[in-house]
Amino acid sequence: FDVRACEAQSNALRDLAHALRAKHLPRRRFKFSQDFSRRGYAGALEHVLESASDTSTANGDDARTARPADIGGREAALENFDGGKTQVIDVDVSGLDATIRDGRDAVVVCRGRATALRLARLTNCIVLCAGEMGSVDGPVYVEECTQGAVAVDSRQLRIHDSQGVAFYVAVSSTPIMEDSSNLKFAPWRDEDGTGDVHVQDFNRVLRDDGMGTCNWSTIDATSRVLTGLNTEEAVLSAARGLLCT
Q: Which Pfam families does this entry report, sorted A to Z (predicted)?
């Protein structure tokens, strides 16, 4: 009983510390433009959006954005940003095929239910689209991303040409990775701390311990900093801590 009581008090203090830290995070809101045009679906991620970039102002900060294009649904993109390891960017992805690309050193919070999410050429970004913040009804595509972390609640997860990214997942089907290395995986929700994630690696070379391949591994239960947090404030505080490491 004493051990459980101490654990409960420790968790309560942790959540309080997360909440206090999150209140002081710099925040910036980004909203996709709704100027959509009709285009055919190119299929490959590098052909998804070819329109010119625009400059938008949100909460007094300049944010590099791109005019969205239609690829059979509604698509929009956030691109060319640098958070300086301090900024949290809120993105409304409700009902969109959303693309976030060519950014670095920022926490990006995807709010609402996206139809699809594409992440490309991100460096040391923490992308959150899970829990009370958001989710993806369809697939999440990750390409050419380096370092950072991605937390997603989605139907599918496909990863290509990425290195050193940590994934916290609530995915209906088995995540798939190809031509990637040093990836780490953990469940987004794991109340008892025993759950693992199974990943299909197309460049499969099994590890001796059976916990992944030479290209990916399971995050140890004691190191899952984004798993099982109860509040948005706690998630944002933990994400900010990851960004600064």
A: TBCC (PF07986)
* Contact yes or no for 132/151 (Cβ under 8 A): no
pTM of the predicted model as reported, rounded to 2 decimal places: 0.71
Lowest mean pLDDT segment, chosen from 74-78, 87-91, 104-108, 228-232: 74-78
Report how many domains make up the chain.
Answer: 1
**Residue 191 CA: distances (Å) to CA of 171, 184, 185, 230, 233:** 16, 19, 16, 10, 18
What is the CATH number for 110?
Answer: 2.160.20.70
Can you tell me which residue has the tokens 């399971």?
218
Q: For residue 168, with 0-12 CB atoms within 10 Å meaning exposed, 13-18 middle and 19 or more buried, which class applies? A: buried
pLDDT band at 46 (very low <50, low <70, confident <90, very high): very low
Highest mean pLDDT among 70-74, 121-125, 240-244: 121-125
* Strand 116-123 versus strand 134-136 pairing type: unpaired
Tokens of 49: 């959006």
In terms of residue numbers, what domain contains 173? Answer: 2-244
Q: How far is CA 157 from the centre of its chain?
A: 11
Taking residue 218's Cβ as centre, other Cβ atoms within 10 Å add up to 20
Residues 6+ apart with CB under 8 A from 189: 170, 227, 228
pLDDT tens profile 138-165: 999 999 999 999 999 999 999 999 999 9
CA distance 59 to 22: 18
Dihedral of the alpha carbons of 119, 125, 126, 130, in degrees to the nearest 10: -10
Distance CA 245, CA 164 (A): 13
Q: What is the dihedral of CA 136, 140, 142, 147, to 10 degrees?
A: 40
Which residues are 177's β-sheet partners?
A: 159, 201
